[in-house]
Amino acid sequence: MSVVGYGAAIPRKRISLAEINRAWGRAGGRGERAVAASDEDVVTLSVTAARRALAHAKIPPTELGAIYACSVSLGYGEHTLAGSVALALGAEGPVTLCDLGLSTRSVTSAIQCCVDAIRSGRIVYGLVVAGDVLPAKPGSESELSSGAGAAALVLGSGPGVAELEGFGSHAEGFIGRYRPEGDFPQMDDERFVFQQGVAVHVAHALRRLLERTGLKTDAFARAVFGAPEPRWGARVAPKLGLSERVFTLSGEIGSAGCAMLLLDLIGALEQSQPNEKILVISWGPGGSDALALTVRERSLSLPTVAEQVAHKELITYPEYLRAMRLLGG
Amino acid sequence: MAQHSLRNKVAIIGAGMIKFGELFDKSFETMIEEAYLNALKSVDKGLDPKEIEAAWLGTLYPPQGNSGVLLSFATGLFGIPVTRVENACATGSDAFRNACFAVALGLYDVALVVGVEKMRDDGGGLIQRTAVKQLWGGRGVTMPAFFGLHATAYMHKYKISREEIALVSVKNHRNGALYPYAHYRFECSVEDVLKAPYISYPLGLYDCCPVTDGAAAVLICRAELASQYTDKPVFVLGSGLATETFFRGGDLTSFPATRYAAQQAYEMAGVSPDDIDVAEIHDCFSITELISYEDLGFAPPGQGIALLKEGIVQLEGSKPINPSGGLLAKGHPIGATGVAQIVELFEQLRGQAGPVQVKNNPQLALQHNIGIGRTATGSVSCVHILGRG
Amino acid sequence: MHTPPVWRIARENARLIGYRCRRCGFVEFPEPRKTCKRCRAPAEFEEISMGTRGKIVSFVVQHRLPEGFETPLPLAVIDLENGARVYGQIVECKPEELTVGLEVEADFRVFYDDAGLRVYSYKFHPVRG
Ligand SMILES: [Zn+2]
After folding, report:
1. ipTM
2. pTM (2 decimals)?
């Protein structure tokens, strides 16, 4: 079971955390976050990432048997991200469409569903795409971390860029972070959510992955960690013995919701050599999934995330408000 | 090939218009009525409205439905055929053209043509009508943008500056300051044009015609009946109309529709561009007039600017163009524009143009419109050649 | 993708599919035709990919537009690599960077909101590095 192609789409606009802090009379702030232009959204970014993934996989769209699309910020209660991607790719017809969301964990659920469909022989290739443009209340803490972006993987049973070694999951009816429809994200006490939710769930999922694959944590050259709050990755890593190996773009682009895990994975793949292993862990309301990948071939999907991160236009806070449609109109 | 021609079959015997402007105090029908009465008044030997056997109404945005009956309501002319014509900025001239067909054929002895537009009642003018819910069909392409695209291409190909194009605006505002019917009656300098805010780069405010209300009317008859009404009729010698789109090709430095329409009109009239003494041509934007010099055959491609620099097209020049101030100064109430150009040329050819009367004793006049349709994806041009009896 | 006019050209719009006249090469887009604008005659067309790259034939920078647009907004006529000519809004480009002949690449974007449903198509950004 392999990743046969991948693609990423990161908006060009960025705002520095210092600029956001300046707007609210606060000092300091390191790093930047990606901002979708007023004409970029979950659909446009996801379509662009999916198209790049398909081009990287070098397979025609008619070979795709299923599309799994994830977002926590599509902006519709009824709609289809998977179908929008299918139209743009030319993958309409006898294709399973699966729209997932609500939790950033859904991206690893999507990978599992896709792998199951391929293993069953029902489909040959499947596409997993995730895109988010995270909304944040102006002046709130999450405004400093809410980024945007999309990424996609083409999975297949043959050889590919990286091989999937196995999964480990932990489910719990724990919510922690949520967003009422049409509103901004809310969180219970952040220390509570991290200590009783994130840290516990992630540890369980990782333990199950290690048990199932027989791997040890020191087998992994890099680890990526997908969660709505990017700082949780850095905080949980020492507890898992992964401190220096966590790779993340969140300092450059903030958190891109469901897409963050895949963007970080693609960034890690770009830096990895054949036979190196990458640990992938998601967290979201409902728990955590962990999966292990072994890099088979160093093959870049263009433009690379490194290029996209570097290719930026810094904007001011008023420009950000306009792009996010936070001024009305 | 066609066997019939309009040449010398139709005479213009009366022509009138109203002062163009922001006519908040005049309704659509009031404007028609005034233009019509002015046209009636201009018939030297008089004309009884009962002699009018058919009428054509050119208008793009009528306030109440899309029927010719609007003209009947404004003039009392019920019980005769009234046809409404709409063809972008060639609306007025195409209404005139269709009236000419019917009169030339002998279906009617006398016909009325009215062009009218109420542009100011709904505020923003045409920019507010820009296509928003369009994907490939001209979304966000305003009128200034359509012509601005030609300006950019023309400036790039022929190394012409905004400063040079501004000479069109300067000339037309100079004429408009003298023309009693013009919306804008002030002069402007090259510097004024360059300093004005951009509307659609490279076009600034003074490169664009204003948003104007207006109406104009002409009375035509079979040529052989003209002497019953006037000793100084003006004859229709040629007429042409064509459509084009730059999606078929071309480098956007010309309006091929004008070339086709002009060729049709010149051929019908049996005259060449050099024979034209005075012209009212479509200067919705400064660049439109400059490119039209070339499309109408007054200058070779890329050399239209010389006509301005050498004074040839000035009011005192050997080929005055837009003595009325053109659309830039007079205004461009779309349906009225073509008809108003014919009104002006009628007066020029009869030596009755007052302060803007050209000095070259004109025998032949040319009228031209170029408009855009299908949400700025296609163009239509209409050309008429008129001559003194 | 819900109003009939948008649905009729959904494939062509989403995937930049055009129809090329087998006689003269003119590319019809987005609706298929059975008559050719350039041949001015009935013609046979073949479905083609119009490609995603093109060159600016001419451009303007819009400063006055109704609600629903952000200004200044660069707008261009673009010749795509496989022969089609289209109107295109230019994104991620400063007005002063625009030139005739500039190479651009298609970029999938939100076009407008129709009763709460966003409608998508392509704008263009300058080809990078
Ligand atoms: Zn053809």
Report:
1. 0.97
2. 0.95
